[in-house]
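ok trying this again, last paste got cut off
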Amino acid sequence: MLRIRRYLNPYMFMFTVSVILLFIQANLDLALPDYLSRIVNTGIQQSGVESAVPEAMRQETLNHLALFLSDEDETAVRNAYTLIEPNTLASEQYVETYPLLQEVAIYVRQDLTDEEIDALKAPISQALLVVSSLQRAMDDPEAAAQMGGGGAFNLSQLPPGTDLFALIGNLPAAQRSQIADTINEQFSALGESMVEQTAVVQVKAEYEALGLDVASLQSSYILRIGALMLGITLLSAAATITVGYLSAKIAAGIGRDLRSDIFRKVESFSSAEFEKFPTASLITRSTNDITQLQMVTMFMVRLVFYAPIMGIGGTIRAIGKGSSMWWTIAVAVIVLVGVIAVIVSIAMPRFQVVQKLIDRINLVARENLSGMMVIRAFNMQGFEEKRFDKANLDLTDNTLFIARITAVMMPVMMFILNVLSVLIIWVGAQQVADANMQVGDVMAFLQYAMQIVFSFLMLSMLFIILPRAQVSAERIADVLETEPIITDPANPHQLNGSFTGTVEFRNVSFRYPGADTDVLKDISFVARPGETTAFIGSTGSGKSTVVNLIPRFFDVTEGQILLDGVDIREVTQHDLREKIGYVPQKGVLFSGTIESNLRYADELASMEDLQTAVTIAQAAEFVDSKPEGLTTEIAQGGTNVSGGQRQRLSIARALVRKPPIYIFDDSFSALDFKTDAALRRALYQTTHDSTILIVTQRVSTVKNAEQIVVLDRGCIVGKGTHEELMESCETYQEIALSQLSMEELSS
């Protein structure tokens, strides 16, 4: 993956925005369980009462609290509240909320900061518990007996109906403190948090005494927190959609750039590179491999940052909700990581071969489709079916193995998830029973645990697809990093307007890459403008190799090829091929129309030029016989026209360019003798200023050539006109006499 990381650079802005949005989304998602905890703890259990520091209380209540506050705490509490008397101007804004204000004075909390409220929680909570306990002792003698007392003041020995607050108010401060400590000891095991929550119950009772509509307070709190959760959910959904859009755009852009660069790179390949990368493999790399990278890019943008944030953030928040239950998540994560590691280690080797198997099935399918007529002619359908089945079954077995591993992983993950849920509920229930946690905190802890496990599940999916994408990335990088053997010079020569088209081979030798011997040895000749130079020889003598060196499909091993005295390696491949009209041994047509195939040579060619080229190539008869003429559709590879028609259209395409050099690589082989002769006459009349090089097996095709080069096993064994070679070259004589009679040869 690192070898192609540069393709992410153009999308770094979108990637950065995605990461920021993922961070926001993760924090929003992590906030939801906390709000759920608030609804359960505060909204339901505490009836919407949020704090142990009441917003309002009766004057009598504050006076009772003051009995059990230190002088410093009492001052802080009194400074935090404002006394509102009944039937005063100040009471008008509070009387509707607190109806009791019509009869008695109340204290209303001032506008305090969160820090100031937090500072008052502990002393007020403890004082509220003492006051509530004493009130219960006054109302219930049995409760008084259970509470007892300290020193000379024993609640169980006081007569019923005693006003404890009036009595305690007359006691020394030290004794009041002793009473408070005695009562608070009973709640000390609950912890500070539970003391505050117990005090909230007393705050609720105080609100009810003030006439406050507690049911309305509860509904308001639940609706407010619920609306906040809905807003957070909508924001999270918006972030999810935006990140999904950006990740898709990044992945599609990277895929587009990779396909474009691979296509351009392949266009620069010589035949040597195509031997290294077979066509079927290049197709797989340009399609399936890039698709794998697109998919993993989307997953990585979406999950690589989101899942860790959720996992780490969820762990921190879960421990904050239930520090005594951290071990449940730790056990689940350890088991989860172990399962993922085992699955990935088993699946990894299979991922590394799946792309090669796709290459294989593409190769077999391509050979079957392109060679269908040969397969049918030799009745080899059964053999080819078995060959395809073998490639297909290998890929299927490998894919099924990976699919089964993946399928096993999900139930295992869900089993771990469900066991974890049961464990958290069981342990959490004990914590609630022991007053160490609230129900809402257990629910929040459970949700955080689910988020943590799901973050590992998401990462596990990434671990499953990443190995295959890694293989695909390496295969793509292999193509992109391949340097073509044939390259343009740093400071190229220009083939200027006075270019004539003289082709000279000077002591040229050539061997194919990786071969041990030369296929061409010390080839020297000059092909001049206005002349036809023909190459003839037995099969495998090197005829096509000679002409394929001129457009630099290969580079010579030794010697030079010169155009107008300039070494072809000193000009760009584009300029070189602009001067050549090339007709390959096998006529190649592209899907489209006859006209679009002809314009392949010159997009700006006029209709007159196209028609002239068709006429010279002896293709006018069959083109004009088509109702659509030049707009007749051509199937892929030209399969809807005959071999001879395909060759003639290929020749016409070269003629449209009107180049100074023509190369015909056995391009007349599919033509009958009459059409061959007519085509050569027309060529001579229209291309008499060009250099023509013809590779052929027919002596009749080259009889009138100004120069015939006879090749045998890569060496020139004869060079001259037909008449000269008939006298001096035994190899040419054998070829000629095998095709024509002496009378035909001498005519």
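PB: full thing came through this time. The first helix runs from residue 12 to 45.
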